[in-house]
Automatic annotation (TrEMBL):
Domain of life: Bacteria
Keywords associated with the record: FAD, Flavoprotein
InterPro entries (UniProt xref): BaiN-like (IPR004792), BaiN-like_dom_sf (IPR023166), FAD/NAD-bd_sf (IPR036188), RsdA/BaiN/AoA(So)-like_dom (IPR055178), RsdA/BaiN/AoA(So)_Rossmann (IPR057661)
Protein name: Tricarballylate dehydrogenase
Organism, as annotated: Novipirellula artificiosorum
The RsdA/BaiN/AoA(So)-like Rossmann fold-like domain, residue ranges: 25-427
Length: 433
């Protein structure tokens, strides 16, 4: 927790809720992860909070995430979370530092939701039920005094000298301060259709071009499509989108990889999707797969040479099956060298096999788009938002948190963590005198 937050919380505790003057009227737009936690944080600090949700239920993305299990955070510290956010890491440093993963876990424990850590570091509710996560966040907000109004689709946000007006299709709400947590454009079936981008641009904010992230990839060849359903549990994928800024446009991730009938999915593929979508020119995109990350190229070649001397009649695919799923081993052997006996493989053939195991080139044509994306890359420019309070630097009294910001992280609870941390920061700051 940062010093300013500690001072604010201690001030509230010393005064007591009945002694705080000028209670802020806050309207929050969007009852997802960031909005629900922002609402609770503000209401606990004696603000009068109205939380508007366009859907008939809150937390639609929470309910769908993680295969309806909801991966709430990652089992790491604040610094570990920040490594998953690239350019946004510095911006998130204050809010995530004030509310890191262990605080998220503690919050849910206090709300009656026990959690567990899986081998990948993902933190899930022990029940594997996302609805418990959503219900706990909603209950926390309601118990703090938040008024949640559903089926309230906001279509205009007006700033007047002394207050704000938030207009929905049915009503008009006055507020001292407004928090926008309406999400990005990913999973539009959940209601996240980028509604806030237009309002925020009208108020003077810059919008970084949005694109799908954490989204399955399209591409591959006929032989990879025939492997649909095969998972490589441990591999390293490297993506390079050649441009002027090489550092920004390259990424390597170690995780599982899934072959699909349309291309590729799984954590490794989805993590690199943010690099894939940076440039529409696919000729400038290079994606390679290291399917044996714990073996060096030299050790693989040595094994092939030794196998040729000891069991030369054995097929290449048979040897590769010792290390890889048999269907993938067979397909790779046929594709790279026509799968001869090991003893028949030339020196050049050996090196071709080794190269395919350590840097298999994969043609990528694109992604499945926003409809299948878990998060949105791009959004409100971080240069225009205070990283400690989430208050707009353009318009006083306006706070922006969650996925509507130009923030996107790795798969594995990173994005929910960012939503919780930025939402909480916005709620605390908006409720301050």
């Amino acid at each position: 927790m940062d010093g300013a937050t500690q001072r604010l919380d201690s001030e509230i505790q010393e005064r007591g809720p009945g002694q705080i003057h000028h209670h802020k009227k806050i309207v929050i737009i969007g009852a997802g992860a960031a909005g629900l936690i922002a609402a609770a944080a503000a209401a606990k600090r004696s603000a009068e909070v109205v939380l508007l949700e366009k859907n008939s239920k809150t937390g639609a993305k929470i309910l769908m995430s993680g295969g309806t299990r909801c991966n709430v955070t990652q089992d790491t510290d604040a610094r570990g979370i920040l490594t998953g956010f690239g350019h946004a890491a510095r911006f998130l440093q204050r809010s995530v530092g004030a509310f890191p993963p262990h605080e998220v876990v503690r919050m849910f424990a206090e709300l009656g939701v026990a959690t567990k850590v899986e081998s990948t570091g993902k933190v899930f509710p022990q029940s594997d039920r996302a609805i418990e996560v959503r219900d706990a966040l909603e209950r926390q907000a309601v118990d703090a005094g938040v008024k949640i109004l559903r089926k309230q689709s906001v279509h205009r946000l007006l700033r007047e000298p002394s207050n704000w007006w938030v207009e929905t299709e049915q009503d008009r709400f006055s507020a001292d301060r407004v928090i926008v947590t309406s999400g990005g454009r990913s999973w539009p079936a959940c209601g996240t259709t980028g509604d806030a981008y237009g309002w925020l641009q009208q108020l003077g904010h810059t919008l970084i071009a949005t694109r799908p992230a954490l989204v399955p990839l399209t591409g591959g060849d006929r032989w990879t499509h025939e492997l649909s359903g095969i998972t490589l549990d441990d591999c390293i994928v490297t993506a390079k989108n050649h441009s002027v800024d090489q550092k920004k446009h390259q990424m390597a991730r170690r995780a599982s990889w899934l072959f699909t009938h349309f291309g590729f999915s799984g954590p490794a593929a989805m993590d690199i999707s943010r690099i894939v979508t940076l440039n529409e020119d696919r000729k400038r995109l290079q994606v390679t797969l290291d399917v044996l990350p714990d073996r060096s190229a030299e050790s693989i070649e040595t094994t092939l040479v030794e196998a040729a001397a000891v069991s030369g009649a054995r097929k290449i695919s048979s040897l590769l099956s010792d290390w890889l799923p048999s269907r993938f081993a067979t397909a790779l052997a046929l594709e790279t060298c026509a799968d001869p006996a090991i003893a028949e493989l030339s020196r050049l053939g050996r090196r071709t096999v080794v190269s395919s195991l350590k840097a298999l080139p994969l043609p990528i044509t694109g992604t499945r788009g926003f409809a299948k994306a878990e998060v949105t890359a791009g959004g409100v420019s971080l240069n225009e938002v205070n990283p400690r309070t989430m208050e707009s630097k353009i318009v006083p009294g306006l706070y922006i948190a969650g996925e509507v910001l130009d923030v996107d992280g790795w798969i594995g609870g990173y994005n929910f963590q960012a939503a919780f941390s930025t939402g909480r920061a916005a709620g605390i700051a908006a409720a301050s005198p």
